[in-house]
TrEMBL record:
InterPro entries: AAA+_ATPase, ABC_transporter-like_ATP-bd, ABC_transporter-like_CS, ABC_transpr_LolD-like, MacB-like_ATP-bd, P-loop_NTPase. Keywords: ATP-binding, Lipoprotein, Nucleotide-binding, Transport. Belongs to the ABC transporter superfamily. Macrolide exporter (TC 3.A.1.122) family. This is Lipoprotein-releasing system ATP-binding protein LolD. It comes from Alloprevotella rava F0323. Pfam families: ABC_tran (PF00005). Residues 2-230 form the ABC transporter domain.
Amino acid sequence: MIELHGIRKSFGTLEVLKGIDLNIEKGEVVSIVGPSGAGKTTLLQIIGTLYKPDAGSLLINGTDVLALNSRKLADFRNRHIGFVFQFHQLLPEFTALENIMIPGMIARRSHGELRQRALELLQFMGLQDRAEHKPNELSGGEQQRVAVARALMNQPDVILADEPSGSLDSHNKAELHQLFFELRDKLGQTFVIVTHDEELAQLTDRTIHIIDGHISVPPSILPENEASTI
């Protein structure tokens, strides 16, 4: 689903990513962990085509996204990548239903089709009775579920989540984590999640550790002869 080779990214004189090689399979739920400043969010934004790397290659579902011009790249991003952020990023003047429909509006799909899809997603999220409520009328957990539904609107190949449960209490956090795996199991959805939440990282299929711009393999999972040399 996602193939990264030799990804490098600098901001001025600061080299953030120093040659990242990573493959993520369809239907995987992958977490990216590491200390602050390690390059986790930068890597996620490159996968999401929001940043362009200084070097390396990136293929998503077989498409060389770095070869696309800006218009085609924006269209690819809207159709194939969904985003979930820590603080929801819902538009306050729109209802839950309207917020979910936004990616489809950008893709110029018909209003009737969008409304039906959004209603189905609200039902899947258990929020069918909240369709006409605005974000300030929803709880934090409900807002984040609306944000996940919005990310799913165009049936993207992959969902990218940046600290998605960071602003939630323990109950809503557990429900959100469970939702990710339900979506993977029912829809075959691929998730790449940047998180500091150890409980979430332990639940995922695979955890990618990033330290100082490199992917690091923890000594505990290295072959014994390699671990002894660290």
